[in-house]
Amino acid sequence: MAAPISGVHKRLKSSETPWREKLKLGRMAWKSRRVVLPRREQVLLDWATSALIQHYAKKTLLEEQILQELWLFLEDILKSTRLKSLARSGSIFLNSSFNQVITATLSNACQQAAAHTNFIPNVLDCMEVILAQPTLAAVLLSRYDACVELLRSMLCLTVRLCAANIQESVPSLLSLLVTVLDKCTSLQRQQHKHTKVFQSVCEELLAPAVCCCWVLNNHSKMLSSTRTEVITKIQENLHQGLFIRENAAAFEKHLCDTPGSSSVGNKGVELYFHQLDQLAKDRLDPSMSKLCALPAGGIEDAVLLYLPAAFNSFLASAACTDTTRTGFAMLQTLCGFTRLTAENDMETAENVQEEGCMDVDAEVDKREVSFKAQEKRLVATRDLLQTALDRNIYRALDDAMSGGKQLAWLRKLLHTLLQTPTTTTAARLDCMRLTAARLDCMRLLLDMNHQVVAPRLADVWTCSWLLLDIMDLDSAVQVSQDNLLCRLLETYAKLRQVDTLLVAMLEAVVKNQNQLSFSKTFSPLTLQRWSELVQGLPVGLAMEIWQGMLNKLQEQYQLDLPQLKCTSACLEQMTTLLALFLLHLRLWDVNITSPTATRVDQLMASTCSSVISPLFKLCLATKQVDEYLHFSALHLCHTWCQLHMLSIHMKGSKHSNESVPNLGVHEEWWDFSLQYPHMSPGEWSTLCQKLLKADSKRIRYVLEMLCLQKVKMLRMLTSTSEEETVKRRIENAINFATSSCATDEVKESAWDGQVTSVTSDSYSTAHWYLLCSNIGLIVPLCTQRQLALLAHYLLQTVVGESCPNMSARLVSRAMISADLLQSATYLELLPMQEAMITAILRGLADSVDCIRNASVIRLCVKVLQELSEDSHPVSATTGPEEDTPQLSKAITSAAVALQSLQKAVQKKCTVYLSGKQLQMMCHYFKVLKRLPLQCLSGVSSVRCVLGCLAVNCLLGASHSVSDCAPAVLRTNLEVLRDVMTGQKKTSLWQALDAAVTMKCLLLTCERTQDKSQSMSLDDTYQDLMYHLLWSVVRSAEGTSILPSFTTHLCEAMRSLSQSPASRDGHRLDLRAPHERHRLDWLFISAGCTLSAGLMVMQNKVKVPAAQGDIIASCTRQLAMSVAAVVHMPSIDLPAVTTAMAAALRVQMAESQVGEDWTPCIERHVCSLKTMLTEIQANLQNIRACLGFLKTVAGGVPKWQAVLPEEFEPTVYNLAVQLLLGVHSTNKEEPSESASSPDMADVVAEAEALLLIVCRCSQPEQFCTYIEGLQQHLDCDTSVCAGLQLWQLVLREEWKDEKRDAVNSILPQLVLQLQVLLQKSCSKVTVDDVLKQTVVPSLLTTAAMLQFGQGSLPDHVAGAALHGCLSVQMQSLPGKTFAAAFHATCRVLTSLLQHHTKVARNAVPSLMACCRTLLVALVHEGRQDKGSVDSADAVLCAGDFERLVAALVQKVDLTRTAAFLVAEYVSELQHGTLHPDVKKSLVPSVYLLLDVCGMHGSKLLGTALDPGLREIYKALHMDYSRYHKYRGKV
Q1: What angle do the packed helices 144-163 and 98-109 form, to 10 degrees?
Q2: Cα–Cα separations (whole angstroms), residue 911 to 405, 845, 901, 1093
Q3: pLDDT band per the 50, 70, 90 thresholds, residue 1215
Q4: How far separated are the first and last CA of the chain, in Å rounded?
Q5: Secondary structure (3-state) at 2
């Protein structure tokens, strides 16, 4: 054994021993047991800490490397298990001076030199170990002053690391910072010298804490939740030491005294504000500046971020004794620190009169503060105002009684906000947030008191709307602007001062007329509020405002000269406001009184004579076109005509042709004398000709609006519209309105929907919007050429443009066209649909006609061109067509060319289609798919089918690697499917060979199989073939060629089964993939053919006897061919099983089932076993197997000997296994796959198969199945699935022995479910368990009560009440509440209906259940309750009403109903019910009041508390008035 080593302690203490040797000795002494060292851990800990203490006391100077290794050694000691165990037992101690070492180390690391941060991770690890042990942590955190110093160093270090982007040590530092903050907060509460605490926080912690919060918020890469937690902790510690109860008087004295008063007793409070002032001015102490090294401008930003939090903490603290006085004074003081309300600004505001206007061009910000800094100041001011508003610190009445000083300060603040950045710079991208913050501040001032804004209302409108271009703003500024404008409108609507608001708006327009460059309108949200405001005006006030706006407009021009007194842009803005006001008035109503109608007519006449006519005189007098002036006149004229037409309609005036002036054959579109008769046709002609020469898009747009308005008026006023003069006027107007479609280039543009904002760029979009919004008026009156033009334009906008990702206030032509195609109006425009089909066919022909180097392409182009040239005009009043309409020569010729194309495609021919061609074809088919294909006329459907078949044949002959080919094929087949689904026309086969057509479809899918491997394409093709064959069997021409197609399928399958690739014994491995794909398509076609044939053979489709014989013969022949190739391998299992099931049903109907089906059945059973191991990956295949096995199981009596042995038990077990896998309870990851459509189909197939097997089974085997289902309830993972299976079994009507088997097991099962309910409800915190177990248990219990009527013992049926009582409704989460409530109501209702005797003997338990349901429903149905959706709560109220109806019918509740009513009344006092919930719940309460009687009513009137009596009194009054039966109707 090695000899022990001694003397290590002396060598460690010796000054002659080099430090590197000391470190080696120390590590050896720590690791090796040979070193003799008593109290090894304490000695080595003392040596390491003493060395560090001497170094930082500058008694010993250590090299940086030695110092780092020493910290590493100390870290190893502290992290050791031995030392931790000794520390827990209190047997080891730390040097009391070591806290100074850590503080000094952290402070040194805050310096700019990066060398000090090398060993910071070791220091932080040591701190973590020390703070984790209470005996060691006492050294660092025992004294408050030492804790403050440590906290200051840690805050400064956090600032240093985050600002320098040294993020490695930040997470551990923040974790330690939270621990130290908690301890420091605890020590603060224990201090008795509050002045000392306040001073230390102000001098030592305020600056580092403010900087740390800012740097964490802006420069830290930590998680948002972590940063928020640390910042909250810092602010809590800071404000706990600042805003203490003992300083309340000092704060009030300092904040509320006048500037010249004495400030004795508040010196400490002044220190806090002095420190804030120094921070805001970036005048930190030099030592603090070195520690908190922030980027330029960071100190000010940190203070601005801190101010709202400080204000909120002050208001919530005990230092704020009066929020309305001291709190508001604090708001004033903190707003001063933002340097937004500078003294010079305040002094300037003193001299501003309350009625003064804002000089927009004044240069206010003479300090030239950057936009970014000003933005942050505004954001801080906004947050301060928001806190003040939330806390309700400003009370107008109290302020008015004290002299209104607070209101005056708020107005000064508004003045400063109005003078911060000018409107010319507000549209710059770098000050968008500044503009948003300024608008938010104005809104908050308005919310505090509208009197703040009232003197400067015009200026507020100017800077927030008139001179702010919303088209150039981002979403944040738009939201802020909408909020401010909407709040202004709402406020003045409530004050009934809308006239004042409109006067201010007009004054703002006049005062800033030189700054207007375009006419401003409202955004959609603001326009909605404007509409609500105007519509809600009283009639008298609305007419006064109307008259006032007319007077204001009359002041803007001189009739005697004539000339304008204002700029034309100002005039346009004023007329725009008048038009917006008039369009939203609700003065034209059928119930309008006679005096009001007279006054409205007078105002209409005054508007015409005093405003519109003078404006037109000015327009006629000017030689050059002034766009603003002429647009104002025309726009206001259009608005007046619109209202005039509405007035005529409301009055029901009778007009005839004689009232329409007859202007002869030379009448043109520009004659608007019908709408506005105050101008002669000659004046209209002169004006319009001059306007057209100016080529202004805005003016042209208004003229087009007038033209369409003219058409509306002619249609409304004339009864005989066939008169030549009226027809010419309509044609001329429509020609002018639609003429721009031929010249507009199809390019993407956007428009905000306002007439005044139409420009040369947005005109095409606005014009298209005008046509589409009046499409129902235009299309019935258009010629064929105009219809073709509109259809071509519509197609080009949809195909050539994409819907851009724009904001909600902008629209494009693509968006307009897409909305038109989906509108209800478009579905009724048959002429437009015909023209659209023609345009699409022409577009397809043009896209294919690029390269005509192949005969196939030439034939396809010929078909499409002849179909597009077919002239089949359809009027708007077309009657119902015949089932077999006569086809035109063009369609017949196209059909002949299509047959030639089909024959050419069946040969070996190849053409090439480019990716661009395929992409255009795909766009055209997508547009065609948007048409109402299922409602097309017979001729239109034939044209669509022929065009799609031609393109389909071309795709079958094409050779392209483009990704668009599968999309073209898919949309092509979808269009064919939709047409054939809606229109099962048989006229198609008069011109086409059905067999050749279906062969070509099959051939196209076979040739494009490598580009279209998707299940959706298979399903589409299957649906299409089914509908095609449906029309074939109904048509005599189609039936005659059905044998040809059947023979083709049989020969194709036979050739595949005899091909060389399948003659060896390894067919599954050597089968070529393309041949297997071809077999899949053959199986799909065969399955559809067999299904259509079965419909005829089973007499579900009535056809003549001769056709029926042909169809039956073809069906039998095809079924035999399918049965002969059932052994063939395939890729698409659903296609195979569909065909096999159809063939099997045919042979079963003919009793021709043989043993050759046995291998196929066994293979499907084995396949199902394999696929059940991974259900999600095989949903389609599993569904196909289940469908086939269901067909097999359904025919058991006819071919029992053919089935394999143990077929029924095996299939039953597989179905149960599948349902168990789907419904199994998974507590860790609840599966949502059962809610998907595919899984729902699989579950439905499995349940149907399970029931079929159970029906066909023998009684003994059925008993075995039932006993197996009961065992699944004992396993936690399968209990939910077992409950679902039991519900399935109980829904079936079993008879005789099988019903007895179920009844014998029901009592035991009911009791087992009640135990399960009580067990599950104990886990109320786990929502998944509740959702998967409790609700199915209740539903199963209800099914058992219903099934066991007459056989279930009374005591067993009564046990169901215990399960209902165990469900705590109020503790259920929102998404589970509705399901559990419905299930509980079903249990109680089943008990009442099927076990009435039991219910009558258990009235107390029933009432307890109803009370629980009622209380929970009222609790969850409140307006302020967000866990349950109101729609679900309404459904629950309906369930409760049905339960109460059954209860009062079956049970005597005369003595107990009053208690339920009392519970309802008692719950109402805790919150207001949602109106919809109350509407559904009150009828059930009325039913209870019906059975209460006089005794119950008196009981409620006396036993309830005084507050509840008023609620009951109102309830009983409504009951007596609206519900109580009084013996008469």
Answers
A1: 20
A2: 88, 16, 13, 36
A3: confident
A4: 114
A5: coil
Containing H/E element for 489?
helix 475-494
Closest CA to 276 of 381, 202, 200: 202
Helix axis angle, 1374-1394 to 1354-1366, nearest 10°: 160
User: By the 8 A CB rule, do 1269 and 1234 touch?
Assistant: no
- CA atoms lying within 13 Å on the CB side of residue 336: 16
**Residue 25 burial (CB count, 10 A):** 19
Asked if 1387 and 1360 touch (Cβ cutoff 8 Å), the reply is: yes
8 Å CB contact between 1323 and 1330: yes
CA angle 1067, 1071, 1073 (to 5 degrees): 155
Residue type at 39?
A: R
- Mean predicted lDDT score pLDDT of the chain: 77
Share of the chain above pLDDT 70, in %: 77
**What DSSP line would sit under 771-795, residue for residue?**
HHHTHHHHGGG--HHHHHHHHHHHH
- Is residue 21 predicted with pLDDT exceeding 60? yes
pLDDT of residue 1203: 66
Q: Is 87 exposed, middle or buried (0-12, 13-18, 19+ CB in 10 A)?
A: buried
Q: Which residues of 703-729 are buried (b: 16+ CB within 10 A; e: fewer)?
A: bbbbbbbbbbbbeebbeeeeeebbebb
Q: In this predicted model, which residue has the larger pLDDT, 717 or 486?
A: 486
Tokens, residue 370:
């950057």
User: Nearest-5° angle of CA 1043, CA 1045, CA 1047?
Assistant: 65
593, HSE (Cβ side, Cα atoms, 13 Å): 5
- Least Cα distance to 1017 among 999, 1035, 1030, 1004 occurs for 1004
Asked whether the beta carbons of 119 and 68 are under 8 A apart, the reply is: yes
Under 8 Å between Cβ of 1065 and 1124: no
Closest CA to 52 of 102, 120, 118: 102
The position carrying tokens 């399955």 is 1087
The answer to whether the CB of 264 falls within 8 A of the CB of 336 is no
pLDDT for the residue 463: 86
Q: What is the C-alpha separation between 1098 and 1091, in angstroms, rounded?
A: 11
- Rounded CA gap, 946 and 902, in Å? 11
How far apart (Å, rounded) are the C-alpha atoms in residues 173 and 110?
13
- CB distance 901 to 859 below 8 Å: yes
Which amino acid, one-letter code, is at 20?
Answer: R
At 750 the three-state DSSP class reads strand
What tokens were used for 1070? 């050597």
Where residue 683 falls (left for φ over 0; alpha for ψ -120 to 50; beta otherwise) is alpha
pTM, 2 dp: 0.70
Identify the top-confidence range among 502-506, 906-910, 1457-1461: 502-506
Beta bridge partners of 911: 958
What is the token pair recorded at 318?
A: 């005990």
What tokens does 302 get? 């940190």
